[in-house]
TrEMBL record:
Its EC number is 2.7.4.8. Essential for recycling GMP and indirectly, cGMP. It holds the Pfam family Guanylate_kin. InterPro entries: GK/Ca_channel_bsu, Guanylate_kin-like_dom, Guanylate_kinase, Guanylate_kinase_CS, P-loop_NTPase. GO terms for cellular component: cytosol. It is found in: Cytoplasm. Residues 4-182 form the Guanylate kinase-like domain. It comes from Slackia exigua (strain ATCC 700122 / DSM 15923 / CIP 105133 / JCM 11022 / KCTC 5966 / S-7). ATP binds at residues 11-18. This is Guanylate kinase. Keywords: ATP-binding, Cytoplasm, Kinase, Nucleotide-binding, Transferase. Gene3D superfamilies: Guanylate Kinase phosphate binding domain, P-loop containing nucleotide triphosphate hydrolases. Belongs to the guanylate kinase family. NCBIfam families: guanyl_kin (TIGR03263).
Amino acid sequence: MRTGNLFVLSGPSGAGKGTLIGLLLKRLEGAWLSVSATTRAPREGEVDGVSYLFVSDDRFDEMVAQDRLLEWAQVHDHRYGTPRDLVERHIAAGDQVFLEIDVQGALQVRSKFPAAHLVFIAPPSMEELERRLRGRGTDSEESIRLRLANAEGEIRLKEEYDECFVNDDVDACLASLIAYVERFSEKKEEDRL
């Protein structure tokens, strides 16, 4: 049986992480995206347990106190965290597990799970990132300014990651990401032979 791996994808809001992961999940057999717990309210169309695990502040506090989160972070006025047991269960089953999380959380995962592969998804430029954020039409001007300011700090931390892909062409970036993931799944297979 194939041994699973943990891949952590981070990058600024608007870099295209969600698009890339959505495509990757359709093309890569045995890929599983972890669902984060969050204290924020659901947005229109989001489903509890599918989009996120929507929890109260008190429930989130319990999860932290019981060390039931692989990582957690305060992001844009809300808390997000990765349930440890689900990730460990999928890795043990041989899945390639993906976390789409903030850089704060990624660095926590690195400290708790050193075998994790950290991948940073970068925009081609700050100008393009701003264009993408404005084009979504979902954020207020204040939110866009906050996301752009946060992006500068996040991009400075990309050197902490094992790999960085610039998402200037979705298909090319996806191909590079899949090749990177497959390299580690093949290595695990070879090690078992």
